[in-house]
Amino acid sequence: MASATSGDHLVPLADWLTLYQGLLLVAGPCSVESRQQLLVTARQLAATGKVSLLRAGVWKPRSRPGQFEGRGTEALPWLQEIKKETGLPVAVEAARPSHAELCLQHGVDVIWLGARTTVNPFMVQEIANAIKGTGLPVMIKNPVCPDLRLWMGAIERIMLAGSQKIVAIHRGFQTHEKKIYRNIPLWDIPMALKNKMPQLPVICDPSHIAGDVQWIRELAEKSLAMKMNGLMIETHYRPEEALTDPLQQMTPAAYHDLVNRLSDNVATHADTPDRLENLRNQIDDCDCHLLELLACRLSLSKQAGKVKKQQGAEILQPRRKHDLFHDRQAKAKALGLCPTFVNDFMTLLHEESVSVQSEDAAKDKNP
Ligand code: PEP
Ligand code: MN
């Protein structure tokens, strides 16, 4: 017997939304800024003929106060208008019970819980209570922290409220380090969710993982290669003027190009063995992490160079170099790494550190 929270009662995606090559394609602006911005963006998106669901943030959860927090309730009639005109169903983020109630009153088809809401079981439960018995479809983003149980808990609370149309959204996880992507993907977590709830559709939001349009394609392809069920892509008719997330929003034309070209790659990936694909994804994550660590390492060297200069110390200090190589070799040995490789790698890294410090010293002399 399927339990109420196993996911076995969920309505298959294709029964309630239009899919493209089996994929749920959610697109739309990060936030509604004006009636005109919403209408123009949504019309251009509708014209692509490749959108399952129009997303639009009406209430924006901002990390710091004093920023654009969305147009709020006044934007809901604009969504009704565009829904009537284009026939596209619409989705809005609900961050508290009153948002969910207003969405229900204004014919919003789907609500989603954002990463800053999923992290809080009290708030998730209050929203679940507000929609109980309505059957309102809900998409649930992963929490900001990498906690699978918290994500599953939010999904279970919504299931227990009687919703049978549920989608999970992978949007990556926050860290404070300087990194290539805005959020670290930690692909293992959405994969574990798929294993635990095989009937639950899981889609990827590469816009929020990337934080910059230049990485969206590779992340979208990777997620589909991992058999995710669709994408959520932030789109704006003039991304450079966007009031929220300007770097990661793409034009509807760029979106069209992205989804058209994805279809070819989805077919290619289907022939690649899952296990190899999985391992390659983990290798990509590792390399990304290595590059981030290298950037951190060299920035520390740069700062050390400034301190040496203040103290009138030499850049190259043989004693320190000797100790550093000795220590890294001992640690590398414990990890089973080849000593020659580690020596070559440390030599390159040390040379680069010295060169970064020397460049800085030269700049200070001849600014
Ligand atoms: C959003 O989708 O615009 C949003 C705020 O996302 P997240 O909850 O993933 O940060
Ligand atoms: Mn956003």
How is this fold's topology laid out?
Elements: E1 24-28, H1 35-48, E2 53-55, H2 76-86, E3 90-93, H3 97-105, E4 110-113, H4 115-118, H5 121-131, E5 138-141, H6 148-160, E6 166-170, H7 188-196, E7 202-204, H8 206-210, H9 216-225, E8 230-234, H10 252-270, H11 274-311, H12 318-334, H13 339-365
Parallel strand pairs: 1-2, 1-8, 2-3, 3-4, 4-5, 5-6, 6-7
Helix pairs in contact: 1-2, 1-10, 3-5, 5-6, 9-10, 11-13, 12-13
Bound molecules: phosphoenolpyruvate and manganese (II) ion.
Phosphoenolpyruvate (PEP) is lined by residues 30, 57, 61, 114-116, 141, 171, 208.
Can you walk through the features of this model?
The model has no long low-confidence stretch (mean pLDDT 93). Helix 5 runs parallel beside helix 6, helix 11 crosses helix 13 and helix 12 runs antiparallel to helix 13. An eight-stranded parallel beta sheet has the order 7-6-5-4-3-2-1-8. It is built from 13 helices and eight strands. It has two domains: 259 residues, TIM Barrel; 90 residues, Chorismate mutase (Chorismate Mutase Domain, subunit A). The longest helix is centred in the last third of the chain and has 38 residues. The relative contact order is 0.10. The N and C termini lie far apart (75 Å). It is α/β, with parallel strands linked by helices and 367 residues long. The site of phosphoenolpyruvate has 9 residues, from helix 4.
Throw out a few tags for this protein.
binds phosphoenolpyruvate; Chorismate Mutase Domain, subunit A; eight-stranded parallel β-sheet; binds manganese (II) ion; single chain; 2 domains; 13 helices; alpha/beta; 367 residues; TIM Barrel
